[in-house]
Each structure stands twice: as structure tokens, then as C-alpha cells.
Amino acid sequence: MITAINFHEGTVFDDGGQVLEVITFQHHRMSQSRAVVRCKLRNLHTGAVVERSYRPEDKYRDIPIEKREKTYLYTEGGLAHFMDMESYEQVMVGADKLGDSARFLTENMAVQGVYVDGKFFTVELPTSVVMAVASTVPGIRGDSVSNMMKPATLESGIEIQVPLFIKEGDKVKVDTRTGEYVARAG
After folding, report:
1. What are 43-80's pLDDT values in tens digits?
2. Pairing of the two strands 65-76 and 110-116
């Protein structure tokens, strides 16, 4: 059992049948009121992010998780196929369980497989990926005002906003958590 006061980033626990992972947390106490632990949580079943407050003394079942290196192979029929790098066995997970992160999967990408209570559950992507720009409108010479962005479509079909100097064929680094442009990749 784990109490809410002992939550930290990455803690996975069971809250009424929901398997939740702590993304961020904050111990909060206003004068004349009880202390609370405010958390931003990811539901591992649905991938949804929710915010909740807990009393510090509330107890929950701590769920052991294990992470193993996997390689993304392909997606077929709504199932994403991964190969375990230790045993070389192939495992599948529904693309709906991956949520928005499925957009960033590319062939032979190394990911972390998450096992909850010994069963394969989902995967964690690296925080950023490098992808090629498939199409974008050309930047107009002289448009050099900072923070000017234009739409670009990446090789996987994702549309993001990039700076004006990015051209078709350039490789860009994209944050997989937010889906935003980070930097030009060399």
C-alpha cells in the first residue's frame, strides 16, 4: 500500500479499478484547510490525462511495473506489433491503447514496453523523435520575425507547426508528449 503523501513522478497505483500513473504532483496546503496532494495522472488503460486531488493519508495499492526494451515493427488491423529485444518474441497492443503516441511510431523505433503485474500493457515512446518533413509551404524571404510558424506535414502524416526556415526534406525533432516542434535535426 502507498499513501498519497508518498506519490512521486512515475508512481503507478490502483484507484478504484483504474490503473493510474503520476505525471506531476504537488503537496498543497492553504491556511485553515486540510492539506491535499494535487496530481496530474495518466490512465494507463485509456491514455487519458486527468487531474485529481487526494488527502495525504489516503492509501492505494501500489502496482509493480517493469519496463523492457522493445522494437516497433508495424501496425496491421488496429494492432501495433513489437518485438521484445531479450526474448525476440512478438507482442501486440491495440493502437487505441497507445492513444496519440501511435502517430509517432516509425519502423524499427526503440521503445520501452510497460508490464503491469507481469502482463504486457502498453509502450512508452522516447520523449522526442526525429522525422522528415514531407511537405510544407515555402517560407517567404524577409519573413524573419521570431516566433513565425507555418504548417508542415511529417513523413508519418502528422501535421505540426514549424519555423519559416524549415524546408521539405529537412529533419526535425518533435516532442512526443506535446506533438510540438523542438529543433532542427542535423
Report:
1. 877 777 889 999 999 999 988 888 899 999 988 888 88
2. antiparallel
**Pairwise CA distance, residues 165 & 163, whole Å:** 6
Domain count, the chain: 3
Of 62, 83, 103, which residue sits at a domain end? 62
What is the C-alpha separation between 125 and 56, in angstroms, rounded? 31
3-class state of residue 173 by DSSP: strand
Report the distance separating Cα 9 and Cα 102, nearest Å: 23
**Domain boundary at 77, 98, 124, which?**
124
Greatest alpha-carbon span in the chain: 61
Picking from 59, 79, 42, 75, the residue whose alpha carbon sits closest to that of residue 3 is: 59
Q: Which domain holds residue 36?
A: 2-62
